[in-house]
Amino acid sequence: QLAQLERMDKSGRGEQRRLDELRIRARELANEAGVPEEAQAAHDRERKLADEWEALGDDFDAARSRALAAEKLLEGAAQLEKWLNGKKRMVDAIGLPSTEPAVGRTQLGQVQIMKAEADSEKPTLEKLTDTANQLAQSSSDKDSVAALQQKISDLNRRWKSLEENLNEKEDGIARATALGNEIRALQKDMRQQIGELESGVDRAASLPS
Fold first, then answer.
1. Least packed by Cβ within 10 Å: which of 6, 52, 124, 140?
2. Distance, CA of 53 to CA of 39 (rounded, Å)
3. Cα(39)–Cα(30) distance, integer angstroms
4. Rounded to the nearest 5°, which phi and psi values hold at 96?
5. Of 155, 194, 190, residue with least CA distance to 73
6. Could you tell me which of 147, 122, 125 has the C-alpha nearest to residue 136?
């Protein structure tokens, strides 16, 4: 669409020159007219033609602005989609939450880094959403607008899914860490009890019969 508008703009500049020539000729004819009514009518036609051309130029500028905004929106959406794909792979690569302290700390650090990156990237999604809403209000091409809004809706859905996955990972790691601590505390207590039991057995065995 943008390429088509550029071709129309190039053609329009040629038409602008023709219009300027016609307006000059119209003024000359009006000035040469011997009847005041004819002169006024010629001036009115020239003024009306100029107004219509100016309105057409305004409409064209608005259409080109919308096309540029839509093109930037699509580029931004493609980049964000690529970013989301990368983050999904990273979340999947973290694996199941581990009860091992060192592994759990590493997993938690990875999740926290990705959550911070998501917070930094979220304004991009918000800006794309605002742009899509503005285009929906100003454009008469309902089919194109609907396609753009669907793309942005899909991005918002995937963004929400990423946030939920990160929160679930963080909660899972916290639970696994707590479980690991309980297991280690239980193992320590059991080792202590076994040690005390073995010590008691040794003492009993050393007593004279």
1. 140
2. 21
3. 4
4. -70, 145
5. 155
6. 147
